[in-house]
Amino acid sequence: MTHVNPQHFYVNEINYHRGHGQCIDQQRGIIHNCPWRTREQIKAEILAFMDIKKYGKPELWADYGAYDHVAFCQLFGTMMDLPEGFPMYTNDLQQSIEEQYVIRSDLPDQPANQHNALADALWVRDAWSSIDL
What we know:
By secondary structure, the protein is mainly α. Helices cover 39% and strands 6% of the residues.
């Protein structure tokens, strides 16, 4: 059996990441299309994506998002530790649907790959756009 040193090849295996975080290629550095992130990497990517100086104050939306907001805040510590200018709440699509008496059949169909973060975010955007306020 040949021993392979994980410092010399691309590591894209979940058990490795439980202890080491990001996909590693020591010769080329971190691989950016790796599906796994450490909490610190997720936090850094959120801060870059939601750069208040560049894009203005973010507006957060979710579908049944109460717990999502708790998990989001935990990346920074507590809700009180959110970066300056970040909202202390996430707007909830379902709450808006109830408040506006929207008929659910008027909303776009949810994608087959629901619970995929990007697919869910796109559906929330499309559902919100379809509500005639």
